[in-house]
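User: Round two. Same drill as before: sequence, then structure, for each protein.

Assistant: Same drill it is. First protein:
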Amino acid sequence: MSLPSGSPRRWHPATALVPFAAVAAAHVVPAATWLPGLRHRFFPGLAGAGSPDHVALTFDDGPDPASTPYFLDALDRVGARATFFVLGEHVVRHPALLRETALRGHEVAVHGWTHDRPWLPSPGRDAADVARAARAVYDITGRRPRWYRPPYGILTAGRWLAARRAGLRPVLWTAWGRDWTADATPGSVRSLIVADLRGGGTVLLHDSDRVSAAGSWRSALGALPDIVTGCRDAGLSVGPLAEHGTGVGRVRGASARPTAAPDAPA
């Protein structure tokens, strides 16, 4: 039976959910770029694809006085520089370590203020946290950061806008070694990275275990020399994102795959 003309329409709970669903979709849909196949094919710049004769080496989650110095020393030994995506809350606790990282020739980029998951839309907080982290990096190093990588690689609409407002370019990765897991070893990290890495790719490693399995950073550290050597043996230079030409080309084919030494016991 239809309502008489002029009668008030009955409220239905589903009607109230429509605006919320629209906001949630707008918030979450950009995070689909976490899927490697999607971003590698349609968003190569976001994936970290750069010059085909170069590999970008990046580290997340520092600075950490318990582990980051070992990575700085290892990079010195192999003569390589990298990009460190740092968390603001740790930057302000360990400013001397961040300053040393920059003084050793490494690039410092923004990983956020804290390592949280953005389940609910919070564009105001995202903007404030990213800007706060970028300011902390600049205040300590005297250099304005250029890049932003969201925690867990989850690039929501709010985080994308926050990066843009802070003058940062979001970049994820093309190869990772799952070095944050409890069962990772230097051999497993190397094997996973070599399987996915090509010329023009961006490597993701972690120089801290604050948000991963205790001691897992040692697997990344152990794999580092062979990763760099394998890239160079394949005719690829290794360095920070600033030298990568990110966005100018796609990842090169299988012929540019780096090699690594046979897996060694952890």
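Second protein:
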Amino acid sequence: MQPGPPKRSDFVDVDGRRLHVARWGDPRQPPIILLHGMRDHARSWDWIASALEDRYHVIAPDLRGHGDSEWADAASYTLAAFVLDLADVVAALGLERFALVGHSLGGVIAVRYAATFPEQVRVLCGIESIELPIVRDQMAEPKTYPVRLRHWVDAERARRRRQVRTYATVDEAVQRMRDGQPTLDDATIRHLTEHALDRDADGGWHWKYDNAARLRPPDDASGHDLDAALTAISCPTLLFYGDASWIPVPSKERLDRIPNCGIRIFAGASHWLHHEQREAFLADLTPFLAMPTERPIHA
């Protein structure tokens, strides 16, 4: 499958910042929003968007601090802030009801959006998207809020002292991506890398994402908030996990909180399962997007 570029590339003004939005397909078709993960970008969805654009108006925003969207203050990368950005994008595009698909951090955001605005989300799909590492860590070894806050402050101050890593050539950055994602094919690695880079004034290259966005603030650690969000989801939900991923499948107790939920486990797939097994992923996703929303999902 060849990735197709977006038909439109727009910017939405949000509280003095610009958020970039890539779009495919006819705006008169049913809308679907695709949310990328941490350190990723909207063009990561090119393959999936190309497969769906004949039936849907496909919308892929760059999250704040990622891709071609502007950066935010270091303390403004909370889950609540990401949800607010999505709400502003939805309002700016005049969307009323849509399908929502998210990978990793994008899926975590999608879960909270679907819980907060259930009247807007027709169906929800999450790729390894329920529990953030910070939630799992807090469950395994609970720490008080002051301790978690201090750890975040220390990490943020340390981040400010670090130099931004630069690469002399695009190929050098491609190799860095290949080293970090050995399960992805070369064409995918190059595509993801080329759309993830900005040029330096001296001719080198650096990643577009804001390193501050990598630090999850202590307010995002509450598993109780996550449980409340899962319980509030009212639309059909389909979750994807890879059995070779570093992300574990959440407990049955947690998943049972989602009223109408199915789950697919991809054998041999890692955290990037929608790249590693695109055809299989689309074979499950496509009928799910088209199904009547009142039909129950079966795991």
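The chain has a mean pLDDT of 94.

User: Perfect.
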